[in-house]
Prior knowledge:
Chain A is built from two helices and four strands. By secondary structure, chain A is α+β, with helices and mostly antiparallel strands. In chain A, a hairpin with a 4-residue loop joins strand 2 and strand 3. The longest helix of chain A has 20 residues, at 17-36. The interface between A and D is medium-sized, with 16 and 8 residues. Strand 4 of chain A pairs antiparallel with strand 2 (40-46) of chain B, so a sheet runs across the interface.
Amino acid sequence: xxxxxxxxxxxxxxxxxxxxxxxxxxxxxxxxxxxxxxxxxxxxxxxxxxxxxxxxxxxxxxxxxxxxxxxxxxxxxxxxxxxxxxxxxxxx
Amino acid sequence: xxxxxxxxxxxxxxxxxxxxxxxxxxxxxxxxxxxxxxxxxxxxxxxxxxxxxxxxxxxxxxxxxxxxxxxxxxxxxxxxxxxxxxxxxxxx
Amino acid sequence: xxxxxxxxxxxxxxxxxxxxxxxxxxxxxxxxxxxxxxxxxxxxxxxxxxxxxxxxxxxxxxxxxxxxxxxxxxxxxxxxxxxxxxxxxxxx
Amino acid sequence: xxxxxxxxxxxxxxxxxxxxxxxxxxxxxxxxxxxxxxxxxxxxxxxxxxxxxxxxxxxxxxxxxxxxxxxxxxxxxxxxxxxxxxxxxxxx
Amino acid sequence: xxxxxxxxxxxxxxxxxxxxxxxxxxxxxxxxxxxxxxxxxxxxxxxxxxxxxxxxxxxxxxxxxxxxxxxxxxxxxxxxxxxxxxxxxxxx
Amino acid sequence: xxxxxxxxxxxxxxxxxxxxxxxxxxxxxxxxxxxxxxxxxxxxxxxxxxxxxxxxxxxxxxxxxxxxxxxxxxxxxxxxxxxxxxxxxxxx
Amino acid sequence: xxxxxxxxxxxxxxxxxxxxxxxxxxxxxxxxxxxxxxxxxxxxxxxxxxxxxxxxxxxxxxxxxxxxxxxxxxxxxxxxxxxxxxxxxxxx
Amino acid sequence: xxxxxxxxxxxxxxxxxxxxxxxxxxxxxxxxxxxxxxxxxxxxxxxxxxxxxxxxxxxxxxxxxxxxxxxxxxxxxxxxxxxxxxxxxxxx
Amino acid sequence: xxxxxxxxxxxxxxxxxxxxxxxxxxxxxxxxxxxxxxxxxxxxxxxxxxxxxxxxxxxxxxxxxxxxxxxxxxxxxxxxxxxxxxxxxxxx
Amino acid sequence: xxxxxxxxxxxxxxxxxxxxxxxxxxxxxxxxxxxxxxxxxxxxxxxxxxxxxxxxxxxxxxxxxxxxxxxxxxxxxxxxxxxxxxxxxxxx
Lengths: 92, 92, 92, 92, 92, 92, 92, 92, 92, 92
């Protein structure tokens, strides 16, 4: 099942930079694993903001939550989730 | 270039149903043409609402506007446009 | 899968009352069918407003959309959908 | 009487992790006690966010406030309360 | 139990004035009956707007909804309900 | 003259607890003095939130501001003020 | 006592123009009477919008409401009222 | 003096199309006159919406209001005005 | 030219009180200088909040920005600016 | 391609002033380089706020994001991006 997920990252100005860089590297590795696994099917940068628009393809709400809540940057993200259904005008 | 576009359709309760059905049929045909042409690359229904999340791949802002503003249901849509850049963690 | 759905009904002041009453009767019948079928598992009135908070248990986003978009009062509703996952502190 | 309660937890990035983990463990124990007591009748996770949708069944507004304001994570929560009445289309 | 209720009245510009005046007279009579019955314990005008701030004292959510939804002007009102608990600093 | 005042208290997570407890005790004493003086005529807790709905009866805007801005918790409050006029349907 | 009042006028597109012009002329006459009477002490146009920022000087909330609610364009206005107190840094 | 002005056009679905087309033609002529006169110095379409972002260069607030409020489509526009000052980092 | 300016002061709870008091004293002196100079023509307190509604009379946007951005409390203020034009119904 | 970009700078009150001044100097130098390169074609100050309205002319969304996200003050900015298309009434 598909979900459109927008993630906005808020970086507190007094966070430890080395710690945050480590989290970012872990986030990148995790995001790429999930893409290779076919779970995170689209990942785009919102131009001009520290945010992304993503589409995830997972079994159900529980798997979606398990994935999102275990992202290394999850504590710094504001997340909105939109469940996507098949559109009657979509082809292919 | 990619744009994430969310379209919410507002149907006035006193619109002429036959007229609106004609517009919907034209909208569907146009959306499918644009998908076949590779311009409208994703089209999903927002579950539970008369709305869609779409991704368009067009040459520039002018082409995006030309396409959206000529949709048969454009006068009934509330549209938000998000320009999408390449994400550094995206693979493939 | 569970979805929390809030439905706010907006009745245009110039709608035909007989027509709207018919829709309301159909809506009630449909809501009760869906409850008996185990799809619409909770249905509460928001005290003081023409709105409800509901929980639906359906197979996937497509079934959710099919049910909601075919409700007789759908054209008059403002709907928000929240996908519900299992909570780690929930018992039973 | 039933209340729909949405609780969003905001964790300050500079909170002491050990202290917060203790609060979370206490919150879980308290939530399960209240479920066993029949006060906290539904508890769902909002998929993708550190938030829940709950239904509480308590004697009155005072008991609702006593329960919510004594939750260990109450100081970190943004809470919205919706009083739920019986819906005329609800069965059973 | 006490509820703070704010009611904002929206009058469509093309409503039939005689019909609306009749509803207003009925609303006034009903509001005064409910005040005499001790259900509608406070009723204030929001200065400068066609709106009121009220406090109702009723048995439960169901009675609150029954009262509000049967007000003659209910179809024209935007209503917000706030359940009121006893304040620890309140005297008397 | 009557004013409806809603006060939401925001407690920073890193405030000194002893200091804040002192402020809360002072706030309570001050609120009770003002109730006894007939200035703070209603004080209700918003169920589920660290907030209150109040009605104050003071001579004018200046007295209202003098009272609110000298509350011990004023620096931690988000306040909305609604001037209340006599309602034409109010009895007694 | 002083109140800052912002009035935004919404003109329905299908209002009768002659009727609305009459209301506008009456509104102007009424606004000028109130200025001459020293009640409506400031009246400015919000540049670029059919709206004004005003300051009224009246006896109390009741007089404010009586004046605003009897303006000929009141049914078409969205109004916000801000009670103004003396500022400690104001001179003269 | 410079003002950034965003204009969103709302077309009621039941407006007379011929009448609206006339207004649009007049609007275009007027916009071009104001551009030639050096008053309307920038005029861009917001991609995907019936809206524009403009910069006007006029003598003062009164001239700005006179221009905007006399636009043929003014009754159908939602307008926001931002006064622009010289930026200390701007060159040339 | 006239501008309506609303300034809301946000005081961080962990600001150094002596430092903030110094800024407040400087702000008061500066506000009074500007009033004497005829630039800050109205200054009112928003009753119940640490905020003011002001009217400034300055040569242009640049002077407005120079004045506001050099206020000692500017870093702690949330500011909204409304350009004011002459109202056709204003007298005198 | 043109983008309208509004940047609001939020300065945390406990940021190191010397560090922030260095970032501001770097930001100014970078903004001027980008103006000289013809990428940042307009840069205006929003009167009364620490914010700007800008127009950038870049190859595509990727270049826009590369420029904005590498601004020295990017971590302190709230940014909104509006893609600008050619307006049919624009001349020249």
